[in-house]
Amino acid sequence: MGKTSPPNIGSLHDVELATLAATGDRPAFGELVRRHGSAVRALLRRMGAEASVADDLAQDAFLQAFERVAEFRGEGPFAAWVKRIAARLYVRRWRKESRLVAATDDGEASEGHGGEAFAATRIDLDEALRALPASERMCISLCYGAGLSHAEAAEALGAPLGTVKSHVKRGLDRLRGRLAPQDGASATGRQGHG
Amino acid sequence: MADLEFETRLDRMFADTPVFDDREAFARQVVTRLERGWSMRQWTIWVAGFVGGLTGVWQLVRSGVLVRAEDIPTEPVRMLSHRVMEASKMGLELSSLPFGGEVMWAAAGLSTLAVIFVAMRAVGEL
Fold first, then answer.
1. Do domains A9-97 and A98-183 have the same CATH topology?
2. Which of A33, A150, A165, A166 is least surrounded, with the fewest CB atoms within 10 Å of its CB?
3. pTM of the shown model
4. How does DSSP classify residue B89?
């Protein structure tokens, strides 16, 4: 049931597809999922979710997005909108599993990867994120991957703003060392997202 | 490297996501779950409407409305029927219908159910 999608659904812009989806057009929404599913799944994995969990949560996020698609006004990219939904879903799950408390004191969870040997190889973002302590990885992913401000990330995590800022700062420092080891500049946190 | 430059680079790296090989299957799974949820919702509405209709009819029967309706003096009803018939100019005379009040109520109940069903289908088509 539902309305019939136009035959050239693949050529429609995200906003047009979202408009169709808001009328109950599930094939149109399916096209949005096809276009942006990978980005949402990748974000959740970068946040620390296992692959199967990330895929389940990404599905849940898209289902939520479908229910709320009328709220999407096209002010920003559709993928970014769904990413925020997915990120919040994962944070809720993460908090429920009480990993936030443990992760706050997790220390150098991944220093085993560290050192010159790690820095000397070509390191992609995924690998660099895996090397971060969980709380820093979460904060960095929320602010840079899901596009949340520091305040929004703090609210989602239920953590003080200062804690989130310090996690972001430390995470940036570590990432800078791993992603650009030749550069020794210091990090001062993110102005644009704060 | 300036802070802003590094953060811009980080933004770019986050935006640069791989395309998973199973993206079509993933999209199908989401749509399947959407369809399943929609079907569940329709059935829930249908069953709720049906149960509600049955409950309504049952309550009417139990409250003795039908019996009381039969006790109503026939003259006003006949006059009202007459006026309705005149207004509609259908030429149909209710008094000549070959069934009693219970059948009328049952028909009304079934009509209500039919309206609910049609409305539900219409919502589904929208």
1. no
2. A166
3. 0.65
4. T
Quick one: average pLDDT of B5-14? 88
Contact indicator for B19, A37 with CB cutoff of 8 Å: no
- Give the Cα separation of A30 and A35 in Å (integer): 9
Whether A24 and chain B come into contact, CB under 8 Å, resolves to: yes
Compute φ and ψ for B24, nearest 5 degrees.
-65, -45
Which of A18, A16, A35, A103 lies closest to A69, judged by CA?
A18
Q: In chain B, which residues touch A (CB < 8 A)?
A: 1-4, 6-7, 9-11, 13-14, 16-20, 23-24, 26-31, 33-35, 37-38, 42, 124-126
Burial class (CB in 10 A: 0-12, 13-18, 19+), A40: buried
Could you tell me the pLDDT band of residue B56, with boundaries at 50, 70 and 90? Answer: confident
> ipTM of the assembly?
0.73
Which residue among A39, A175, A185 sits closest to B2, beta carbon to beta carbon?
A185
CATH pick for A9-97 out of 1.10.1740.10, 3.90.380.10, 1.10.260.40, 1.10.10.10: 1.10.1740.10
Q: What is the dihedral of CA B33, B35, B37, B43, to 10 degrees?
A: -150
Boundaries of every domain in chain A: 9-97, 98-183
The verdict on a CB contact (< 8 Å) between A172 and B19 is no
Question: How far is it, in rounded angstroms, from Cα A55 to Cα A57?
Answer: 5
- CA separation (Å) from B120 to A25, A156, B61, B114, B116? 17, 38, 26, 10, 6
DSSP B105: H
CATH architecture of A98-183: Orthogonal Bundle (1.10)
Distance CA(B24)–CA(A6), nearest Å, equals 19
In order, the DSSP letters of A15-52 are HHHHHHHHTT-HHHHHHHHHHHHHHHHHHHHHHT--HH
Task: Tell me the C-alpha distance between A148 and B84, whole Å.
Answer: 66
